[in-house]
Write a structure and sequence with these properties.
Elements: E1 8-12, H1 16-27, E2 31-35, H2 39-58, H3 65-69, E3 72-74, H4 78-82, E4 87-90, H5 96-109, E5 115-118, H6 126-129, E6 138-143, E7 152-157, H7 163-175, E8 179-183, H8 192-208, H9 214-229, H10 234-239, H11 246-262, H12 271-284, H13 290-311
Parallel strand pairs: 1-2, 1-4, 2-3, 4-5, 5-6, 7-8
Antiparallel strand pairs: 6-7
Helix pairs in contact: 1-2
Bound molecules: nicotinamide-adenine-dinucleotide.
């Protein structure tokens, strides 16, 4: 299995995430077959991808748009997408019954040695692959939206996923420019959404008690924590925030963080607080501006990625 390389891949589900995956694979030179259950979505898929590619080209993130597009093919049936794929990325709706049906269809059409990764944000693979053929070749390959602009991918095996499958997907994700991490158990929310959840729970609590405005809480991340987090994680951050490193930081500040944690009870986000936040956000950004603002977000991500590309040490210069 170690010698396998993904050359032909299938993307099943061409929504927000599926189209991002298609770009990830095509810009790495893989042949991509895209399938969606809705004809209208299939017919618009390449036009939507082209718009993103044009922006990426403008910022120097890809060379030639047509060179990427020539690797992308929209097909009319799921078996057509999957039958000669080395790897299948399932990106359909986040519902167990839908995932179960589509994974069964994929299993019955895929080559015996193919692998299928699910984009699911939080459903463990064991909940939708238990009774399907080739279940040892299925796992969760959870991206961050949009996958072509944020490289992190969480790999989560079901108890029956072959260890070699995880190792191969990790290697192949690295080869095509993603940054895979391996989650060692099927923990709810995996790692990324547990970290995001911890921050969101505290943000809602601060907002509910009026500690700061919604905009100022957002600024604490966009103008503060997030500046470092775009290139280092929380452990490396605190390792550099005390003269003698992480243990020194823990000695100095563990009591503060313990006291903060002890002051909170887990709570659902209260409806009235959510309504207040909704009113504030819609005053700042009307509902019909959300799509345009998402494009702005993607362009900011592209600009950020362009700075990483510009600063990257060429392979030949590395020791
Ligand atoms: N949106 C995010 O921020 C995000 C981030 C990471 C992971 N995910 C996960 O990725 C997956 C897709 O999410 P999305 O945001 O792209 O959703 P989406 O609604 O934009 O796209 C889902 C697509 O799947 C298609 N589909 C549904 N059933 C199908 C079937 N049986 N066969 C073929 N196509 C089918 C739909 O027509 C739709 O185009 C979900 O599991 C989601 O949890 C989403």
């Amino acid at each position: 299995m170690g010698e396998n390389r993904f050359q032909t891949v299938a993307v099943v589900g061409a929504g927000l995430v599926g189209l991002g995956w298609a770009i990830v694979f095509a810009r790495a030179g893989l042949n991509v077959r895209i399938f969606d259950g809705i004809a209208d979505i299939r017919s618009r898929a390449l036009a939507r991808i082209s718009e993103s590619l044009a922006d990426m080209k403008r910022l120097g993130l890809i060379g030639d748009v047509d060179a990427v597009l020539q690797h992308l093919h929209v097909v009319e049936t799921l078996p057509e997408a999957v039958s000669d794929a080395d790897y299948v990325q399932e990106s359909v709706l986040e519902r167990i019954d839908v995932k179960m049906d589509v994974c069964r269809e994929i299993a019955s059409a895929m080559r015996p040695e193919a692998i299928c990764g699910s984009s699911t944000s939080g459903i463990p693979a064991s909940q939708f692959t238990a009774d399907i053929p080739w279940r040892e070749r299925f796992l969760v390959v959870h991206p961050v939206n949009p996958p072509h602009l944020i490289p992190l991918v969480e790999l989560v095996a079901a108890p029956w996923t072959e260890a070699g499958v995880v190792a191969l997907v990790r290697k192949e994700m690295q080869r095509i420019g993603q940054s895979p991490i391996v989650i060692n158990s099927e923990i709810e929310g995996f790692v990324l959404n547990r970290l995001q959840g911890a921050l969101l729970n505290e943000a809602w609590a601060l907002y509910a008690e009026g500690a700061a405005s919604l905009a100022d809480i957002d600024a604490a991340v966009s103008q503060g924590l997030g500046r470092r987090w775009s290139f280092m994680g929380p452990f490396e951050t605190i390792d550099l925030n005390a003269p003698e490193g992480i243990a020194d930081y823990a000695r100095r500040l563990a009591p503060l963080y313990h006291s903060i944690a002890a002051s909170r009870q887990p709570e659902r986000w209260p409806d009235d607080v959510v309504q207040r936040a909704e009113a504030e956000r819609r005053a700042a950004l009307p509902q019909d501006g959300l799509a345009q603002r998402s494009l702005w977000r993607d362009q900011r991500l592209m600009e950020l990625n362009a700075t990483f590309v510009a600063r990257a040490v060429p392979t030949s210069d590395r020791a």
